Structure formats: structure tokens, C-alpha cells
Amino acid sequence: MSSYYGAQFLGTTSEGSTTPSPAPIRFQRKASTGSAPPVPPPAVPPPESSGDEAEAPTPTTPRLDSSLQKQKTFGSVSSTSTTTVASVTPLAREPTRVSTLKREEKSKKLRQERMERERQELEEQRTSAAPQKESQEQHITLGERTSYVEEPISAQTTLERKAEKALVRRITNEMQLATTGAFMHPIAIHQKHPVGAYTPGVYRIRSLRFVEAALRRTLWALGKFLANRPIFAAILPILCFLSALSLPILSRNLIFVDMPFAHIFGAKSEIVTNGLGGLKAQEFNSTNPMFSCMNWRDPNHFAVLLRTSSLRDTILRKDAVLAYTALKKKLDHFPVEKREYLQQCSTECEIDKDMVDRIVKKSPQVALTYPETFVSMSKDSTNLTRVYLGATIGGVEIDTDGAISSATSLFMNFELKQELGGKEHDAWFRHFDDQILLTTAPNISIMSWSPENFRARVIETIELEYWQIPICAAILLGFCVVFSFGLNSYESKPCIGLMIFVTLVISSLTGFSMQFYRNLPIDPLIYPICVGILWLFQLHYSWSRYSSAAVHPTEKIAFILAHDAPGIVASAAVVVVTFLLMGLLMTNSHMVSSFIGIASSIAILVIFAILFISIFIFFGGRREARGVKWYQIFKTGDTQFTAPQLASFDSSALFGLHDRLIDTRPRATRAIGAFLIGRTVRYPIVFFCTAYLIFAAFGCSQTSVDIKEEYFLPQKSAEAAFIENYREQFGKTTRFLELVIDGSVEYHDRDVQNSIFEILDYAINEGFATRSANWLSEFTKFEKGSIYDVNPDTFVPVVNLVFLPSEPYRKFASDVVMDRFQTQIVKSRMFLELTPKGFNERVSLIETLLTKASSTHLPLSVSLPSTMSLRHDITVLSSGLYAFGIALVSLFIASLLLLGQPALTFLLLFTSIAVLVETIGYSYFWTVPINMVTLTMALAGNALTCVIVIAFCYSYLMSGKSQIRAGIRIQYTFQATLIPVLFACIIPVLTFIPILSVDVPLVYHIFKIIVLNATASLIHYLLFLPNLMLLFSEHFSFGCSSLNCAECCCDMDDESSIYYIPTGGRPIHPDGIYTQHAAYAYSVPKINAPPPHYLAIGAPPTPSANRVGEIYGQYAVRESSRRPRRHSESSQGGDVGATPRRDRDSRRRRHRRAVSRDSEIYEDLPSPRPATTSSRSNSPRHPHRPTYDSRQASRPQAYHYEEGAPQWRPYIQPSPYQMYYPGGGAAYGQTRR
């Protein structure tokens, strides 16, 4: 194909000199609208006849000879753009007939006359061009011309010549793409599509069409506004932040640090019931001495523990026992006045307490059995009383007779009255501390427990965690500033790093201030920091990523916001809606405050990212474009920027600008992406991912719920040491389960008795309990050996008057509650001594017991005093599943509405589920218990997971038409998101390290959850997402290479050309190299009526009707069944009639083109087919004095005209289309080896 579109006529004289041809033909914009011309325009003359042809009789002959028509169609001797007229030599042979001689002489004469006439015309044209050049006439622009024939060479400016040259070259490229696309669609029907990493994928994301268009247009206008009015753009985010701070400022009196237990566990009772109980019955008189445990969260419980310094020593010696009794007496009789501070129990209970004190006092002289001992209540030793010592003496070793051989600890506890005021409570606490300090004994350590000390230590821990936040902020500041430096001083922008840090701090303060009341956890707010690092550094690095061509800074920031920011806005909307719903629908205060804090932090974060950070990105990029280094504050630099290329928003031009600006040079991030999807590592990745998921599922099935008081205390604190020693010395006697039948039950009924016994026997038979302490079973034994007649009328009197007062069963007296008339039992309790299995699996055991009780209509309630919160243990998993279910439903609906890709929704849901399972599963291997705090952190980590998945998929889908293969798109995705994702997963983990100095187990657990969540998200980003994306590109809706691509929801974008290109014509090289592989198709716009200023170009005649039917028959059938395509904002649909809105939009576009047509310099469009030769060889050139080489072979004419042809269409000789895979090998035009 000629390098210039048009026919350049060159003539030669008999002496061999070259004469210039008439002025070449240029393409002009059509001035009027209308349908495609069925015949060539009158200003375009038909091609000249060749020298071998006979003279046409008249120029208006309607038909040509068929042979002559064939010669004109397929290129005769003089049908090229550079027509060569050579001198005709006489014939070599002698004539044999007179007619032959006359015909030859006539042809020779005609040729000579024609050559002489052409020589004269060229000479006249050359002489007339000289004065025209001197007169410097005004050059007529393309929009003002009405003729398709080029005027003589005028004195146009260099800028105008370059503009026309670039415009013609752009028309050439787009016509070539459209013609190639029309060929590729039907040919791909018969070919097998390529599979693997280089399968075509989706061109762009599809959400709600009007929402997406409005969002991009708004962000484009916002980018222009903040570049021109940066101060006004920064006012809105600052006002949002100040409004968020106003809430805690106005309620500052309510802000204080307190214990978080009520916030975490709630205010409900720790007794779990099956809901069959009636009204609240009377409480038990006292605790059972055999089953008592320290209540750590009760503000009225105080305790003292005496323990020997050596394990070989015994506490039951005289000095230790005297110290124990003296201290207990001083604390029991405070104050000296008659008013008592301690809670008083029943008479029998007080007698037992005094008996225990006496036994302990005499323990150095007498032998005691354990855990129960028998003492005489009379002088003759005939009346023996059973006394329980297991709650007072700990660390006991017994001999073969069951007697105590040694003991290591003594325990005493005190319970204050509930009605005590604050002054009395403080007075008791001061007296308690003074007596502990005054009491000493050799080789004895005295440890105390008081609610005030416990509360002070927990609050001190929380405050210490707050004091570590400035250190964490300093580390975060260092990372932000360091990673904002580039390869040189021009690309370095430390100011942007500083503003990123300020934005992250503002986001955290906003999330913290949304919950102005106390007990707000600060640990979940680390995830908005992770999200902010990803978004802000992604925007920061996008400036350098779009550096392949020079562009005005204002237009570049508007392009970045319009092209990249919709993904950030969409992901922010998904995350904010999800966590807001979770916070509104949950009942646990800790989860509610955490989720609402995260939602508010991310909401203010996206506002600052768009309106605040973008301003400093623009400032930094503008200084870089001026050639100013980052430390040259007062230097202005070069302010002559490239002229803007887009006068207004246009989606087609926006995505075309992306393809021109994207920097696709080889770099490490793209190499990592290519490596991770390579065939050599694909199977190891699949094996690793499978094993990773299997181990996570196993760990998730083995994890257990656990929360303890010592998790909130420093490991070296006195309170933590007291709890540890108490569990060590008395742990075996405190692991019991209390079952309360709350209501009037017919205990004398055999069926009721069997139901109760079945519940207790189940726990023992399954290994959850060792034995049961049950008054009902003891009564049945008593009933069998008793002389009393037990019936429904005498059951309650026998139990109350005969059974409970007897000595062997007096220990059950506090376990039965009668009504005030002593006629029925309204409440009773029983106990199960748990095994380690029963204690670890207490949740499933309690749920089973409650289910069995409900099936027999027993009003059963259960409590476990040895745990910190039984209700928490039972409800934490159900609350977590409920919250996660809300998150999944919200993610499903919001992602479909805002992103419009079912496969993306699947990836989002799969990754969210997998990351949560992996976080919980591997926490089991890292000895992290699951409780409300750690589970909330794991659920909050879903914010980071969702943002990473959406960022990956959005970058993949928006990689542009120049990167049409899935493998190349994944490389682009890694180029756009790898470094921000690494920062988001690593920097917050390193920032959290100073908080570990608090030395609290719960802080370590939270840190491990953060590490596990960040690791799981990073593994999915590196290994799962690329290969899953390839899977969808090959087989599912992401892979739009199949014939029914228009039917899938993620359809290809119909980016129609702004030039009028009719649909008639034939494909190029139907039997050439294009038929060996399926090709990526650019859709051709279906336009019947050309828009204004569009160029109509004639099409070459088709070689044969059969070939046209063979190629376009199936294509027409497929096009008729395809649903209508959705056009972009700038596309013109020819099938739709004119409307006022369409006419108004057309006038606006004509006005914009008229303003920018003459001053805008177009750059070359990047072709999706890398040519093997220079682009200059196929681009039109401005005419200069052309020369002719007689050795050059004749080439076919660029445009052919056939009278009677239905349409005009360009005939373009394409360059070979080649796609190179990484590692070598071409997909088109070459055979892979």
C-alpha cells in the first residue's frame, strides 16, 4: 500500500526527466450528513485508464467493458498511487494484416497525444503553484472544505500540516482496525480459540451502565476542578472530619477508660437457660461448700492465698496456720462497731465455716482426710460431722489411707454486702490492703485479690496501649515518607507520603470518634489503615504508571480519577455498606462499635483519597512535568506543557488515552505476574493451595472458644500470678457444671426422675464428667431404705423434714428451695464434676443438655462458674457466623450492583470465606483462642480482603484494549497493584509491633490474627487470584473469546470509531495467515447514516459472490441473534432515529470538534497488532516534491471504484499481525516452536 492515500501522478518526458503529478487527493471531513453515497462523490474522478486500454468513447458511459472493469478492479499497469507512463517501443514483429497495422498505428498515436497533453497540464499546474505560494493565502481547514479533491499546495503552517498528517494517520489506523475486525469475526467461527494464560479477556468492567457513566464523568470533572481550585476541593473533606470530631468534643464528659468486660460480654446473666422456666424464683440460701468457685468479675469478692515458697514444704505448720487464722479474724471482724460489712449466710453455713477454721487451726496436731474429713460435734465423739476441706486447703498430697501428707496452700475469700456504699467499700479495701501488708510468715508468700486492683491493672494496660500509638504513628510516618521517594529527585514526592500519613491518621481518628462512648476497641482500626495504604499508594504510583506519553498535568489527574478512582469508590461503597449493615444488625456491643468504626473510617478515607490526596498528587506530578526536583521549593521550572488532548469527557477517548499513556516496559512486577501464571509453576501452586486449604479446614474444625481474665492482664502482674496459682492449686475442685431446675416439677413422678437421671448419665457416659452430686438420686436411695411412706402428698414433707436435716444429707440443704408455705419445691440444683474433655467441649455439652431438657419439658438452666463468661462461650460462634452471613449477603448484592461481574462476585465471596477459614484455622496451630475479641478482628480483616480482590479484578478488567490477552492483563494487574498490596499487608504489621511491649496475652493474640489475615490475603493475591482469573478467562464469563460473548454479562465494550466506516466490503486475506488462529475482534459500528463531517470512502469490488456469501453468511446469522450492544457515550447508533436529545448531543460534539480540530495535535494510536516494520511505512505523508524510481515495481491503487457498487469502503493492506508470548514464539504470523 502506498504511504500516501491517493493517486500521485508522475509523468516522464522522452528524455527521462520526472515531472510532478497533479495535486494528490486528501481525505476531508464530510460537511453534510446523510446516507452513504451509492456512487462516488462528483468531486472524485474515476481512475485513469491505463495506457493499454482503448480511449473511452464518452465520460458518461454507464457501463464499462467487463475485461476493462476487471483490469481496473485488481490493478492494471497504471492503477497504483504512482502511475508510470513509459514510452512505448515499436512492435518487434511485422504486421500480417492491414487492419492490425492500422489499429497499432492508431494506438501509438493516441498514447503519444495523451502523454503530450498530460505533460502540458502538469507544466501549467506547476507554474500556477509558484505565485500561489508567494501570495501566502490562508490555509483552509478540514472542517471548512466541502470538496474531496485536494487543492493545490498552499502555504499552510507547520502545525497545520502536522495536524492533518496525524489526522490522516489516525483515520488510517482506525479504518485498518475496523476492516481487520470485520474479517476476524467470521473467520474466528471456524477456528479453535487459544487457551491458557493468553486467552482474550474482558475489556472493561460493567456495572450499572448509567451509574458507571455518571461516576466517571463526575470524577473527570472533579479532577479538572481540584486542579484549578485545589483549596475549595480540600474544604469538603476537612469539614467532614471536623463534623466527625464534633461528636466526641460535645460528649467529652462521657469519655473515659473503663473495664471492657461489660462491653464485650454484655449485661445479661451468665446463666444459660432453655427458655422453659417461669417467673424468677427465690435464690438459694448459700453456696454449696463442695462446689464453690472464685468469681473474678464480682466487685464484692476479695480473696487471700497463702502458699509455701518451696514445693517440698507444707503449709499445715504452726506458724503458717497462726498467720492464716490471725489474718482471717482481723478481716472478719471489721469494723469494730456492731455493723458488719461481710455477707452473712445461713446458720448451718456459718457453723461449717467456723468448723473449717477450727480444723485448720488444729491441722498441725491431727491427721485430716481429704477432701472431706469427719469431726465430732460432742465431747464423747459419738456424733461425727462431715466437713469439706477442698475449698480451703490446696496442693494436697494424700497417703494410702487418704490422709493429708502435705499441702502447699491455704485459701480464704470474703464477700461484701451488695448494699454497701462507696465509702464503706473503700474503707474495707484500705483495711484489706493494710492487713495484707502487716501479715508475714517465714517461707510463705501471701497473695491477695481485690476487684479494685484488678480493675486498675486492666485500665492501666489499656492506657499503656494508647500511649504506644504515637510510636506506631512515627513508624507509619517513616514508611510513608520513605516509600514516596522515586528513582530520582524528579519522581520523588515526600510531600505526598506526608499527606498519606495525615490521611491515615484522620481516618483512624474519625473511626474512633464515631463511638464517643467508652470501651471502643482501637485494634480493629488497623484495617482501615491497611485499606488506606493500598488505595493511596495505588493513586500515587498511577502517575508514574501512565508515563508513556506526555500529557497536560490537569488532564492527567482528571484521567487518573476517571479511569482508576471508580474502582476505589466501588470497593469503598461495598465495604462501607457491608460493615454498616453488620454494625446495625448485630447485638454485641464490641462487634457493633468495631464494625461502625471501620465503616466510618473507610468512608472518610475515600473522601480524602479523592478530594485531598489527589490535589497533592497533582502538585507533585506538575512539578515533575516542570522538571523541578522535590527539594527545589522555590524553583518554577518549565511551564510549557503539552496541549490537552480531550476538550471534554468522552469515554472512548478516555480509554484510548489509557492505551497511549500506559507504560508497558518490562519491569519486576510484570515479571512476577508472568512467573506466577507460568506452566512450570502452575502445578506446584495448585498443590500448595490445596494443602494450604486442607490444613486450614482441619485447624478450623479443631479450634476452641476460650477467654480468661488473665488475657487482659500483664503476664508479670500480681493479679495474673494470683489467678495462675489459684487455678494450679484448686483447679480440680472448681471445674464443675451447675444445673438448676427452675420451676415447680413433680419430682415424685418416675418419668421426671428418669429424665433428670438420663441427662446426668449422658454426661458421665460420654466422658464429659466423672460424677454427679445429685440430691434426687440420694433421696431415691434414702426412700428405698426408709420406713416412711413416700407418695405425692408426703414427698415434699419427707424431703424437707426428714431427708435434708439428717447428717449424711445435710450437705444438700442449700440445694433445695421451698416456697414460703413449705408445700412444694420451686427450685433445686445439681452438679457435674467435669473432666478435661468436658471442660474443653463445654459448649457442645451444654447445648446437648439443654436440648435433652427441652425435649422432656424440663425448665433447665446451666452455669459454669470457672469460666469467665459462659454466655460468651456459647454465643460467640453463632454471633460470628451471623455477622459473616450478613457480610456475604451484602457483598453478593453490592458487588453485583456496583461491579456487574458475576465472576468477580464469585472471587470476592470465595476469597472472603477462604481467608476467614484460614485465619481461624491457622490460629489453632499458633495457639490463639477464639473469643469475641479475636473473632471480631478476623471478621474485620475482611475489609482488607475485599479491597485487595476488587483492586485486582478492577485492574485486570480495565487494562485496556492494547492488552488483549489474559496473561498480559495479569502482568498489568501486578504492575498496578503488587507494590500497594505488599505495603498494605506488611506495613501495618510492622507498625503494630510497639504495642507488643504492653506484654498482655490478648495483644499478642490480636497481633497473630493480624499477621494470619494479612498472610492469607497476600497468598490469595499472589497464588489464588491469578490462576482463578485464568480459569475464568478460559472457560467462564471472563473469557469473552467465545461466539456468545455478547450474551454473557461481562460483554465486550463497543468502542465505535468517530469516523464513518460503512460495513460493506470484504475481509482482508481470507486465506492468509489470519486463518490459523482466532483473533481478538474489534467490533465495527453499525452505521447506516454517516454523522456530520465523516468521510465516505469507496470499497473495493468483492472477488466473488460465493466468497462473500461464505464469509458473511454465518456472520450475519450470528449478528442477527446477538442482543443489541451497549454503546459508550460517544458512540453513534445508526439504527436509532434522530431525537432532540441526539441532535443536541450532535451539535455539542460538532462545536467541540470545531474548536479543537485545528489546534489539537493527535498522537499515534497504539495498534493492538505490533507491526514488524516502522509505522512510518504505512502512514500518510504530506506531499513534497516526489521522485520516481523507474526500477520500482507498480503497486496496486489505494482506492478502487466500481460503478454500481452499493457502498464505498477502504481497501487496506494490513501488516502481519503478530502476538509474542513471554518466552518467545508468535501467535499470529509465525509458527510456535
From TrEMBL:
Keyword Membrane: yes
Alphabetically ordered keywords of this record: Membrane, Transmembrane, Transmembrane helix
Bias (Polar residues) ranges: 61-75
Biased amino acid composition, Low complexity: 11-20, 76-89
Composition-biased stretches (Basic and acidic residues): 101-126
Taxonomy, superkingdom: Eukaryota
GO biological process: endocytosis; molting cycle, collagen and cuticulin-based cuticle
Protein name (record): SSD domain-containing protein
Organism of origin: Caenorhabditis angaria
